[in-house]
Amino acid sequence: MKAVIHPSAWVATDTKLGDGVVVGPCAIIGEHVEIGDGCQIGAHAVIQPGVRLGRKNIVHPGAVIGGLPQDLSFNPETESWVETGDDNVFREGVTVSRATRPGGATTLGSHCYLMANAHVGHDCRVGDHVIFANSVALGGHVQVGDRVFFGGGAVVHQFCRVGSYVILHGLAGASMDILPFMMVAECPAKHYRLNLIGLRRAGVDGERLKAVSAAMRRLRCRESLEGLPATPELEYLAGWLKAESKRGRAGWAA
Hints:
alpha/beta, UDP N-Acetylglucosamine Acyltransferase, domain 1, 11-stranded mixed sheet, 9-stranded parallel sheet, 3 helices, 27% strand
């Protein structure tokens, strides 16, 4: 099935459109863009040069994907990218900036949902099944794990890491790394308690859930995780803790 392009849209001659792509009225698609099968580009949406979208992504009216990084030192001639997986939704006014480094990419996984006016900064790396409520903003170089939920108006400082299965409450402000599996609130953000609902929905229960709970109690008390069961969650946590941190770790609520 060939792509369907509205007569008022502008599409660069070197753009690669997959089967079944629909480009709406007055949409603009720049040079060096690849759009996978079944994507929908809404009216007045802008896909800037250097974007690679996977399959079945939906870009709503007024979204801008691949805009120049909001970095005063960036050279616009730098070749960099935005790369996404499949089945993502970019609602009205969403902006995703391309990377600052030559050949680098701002990346987004699959099955993410970005609500109106959310922003993903340059060089961010976002996992799968991540939900951004309205007006969430990620600074540059932020790393986000899988199945994270950002409440409305939440913000994350550049170079922070947010582990998998985190809920960041609305209007929370993270200026340091956020541990996996936690519920987080306030500004500056603090760890409150386990994201029990999110973990159970992901099938983490029984002894696996007990192991995560024990690990977090130990971390809160600044104790070692040695001797805890080698569950998939604790293996992920151990790797996350060993990885480089540029911001340090957020504290705990009283």
